[in-house]
Amino acid sequence: PGEETAEEARARVIAMFRAAHPANCNKLEDSRPFLSGEEPQIFPLKFRYDSDSADQPERLYTLYRFSCAMYAYNLGEAYYLKDDYGEISPVSFAEPDLDIAYADDSSEKVKSMAIGGWRASTLLINSEFDEKSAAITSFSKWRGVGDAFSSGSWEFRNGEFVLKSYAVDASYDGEQTPEEILKLVK
Description:
Blueprint: H1 6-20, E1 41-47, E2 59-70, E3 75-82, E4 88-90, E5 93-102, E6 110-121, E7 123-125, E8 128-130, E9 135-141, E10 149-157, E11 160-169, E12 179-183
Antiparallel strand pairs: 1-2, 2-3, 3-4, 3-7, 5-6, 8-9, 9-10, 10-11, 11-12
């Protein structure tokens, strides 16, 4: 058996994506190739583990980005990562699970907001991959005007995406005033 070609890997990740998201990807039935998940965006990722020496060759991973679900004002994306051994896995993104209390029924003023735990999501909303920094960012509008939202940034480090920052504006007040929930230095 020979080494898998890029086309074979692409076909394999498309099959994995289609099998994993039939219920939550309304774009799977769309006739447009990229929006249907038929054609992912593909990004090469070169890096060294922190434990690799400088004279070791860079490792080559491949990131696949699929458009998955379209909502009224948000677009959901799923990501898959192929490692240097040929293993393909869905990328899960750490996100805070928030406990939010509002001062009144209008939800314009937040009384309190606390992290009640952490969860992992395989879909990001309105996400972008920056090839230069190898980071993925998201901006999830909680309503169309975008005054209430959550946003995050995940950095590719040591072969996986690590949550680096997360901000939330939970007030439906017509203004963007996010509160930084997490900001990691390294």
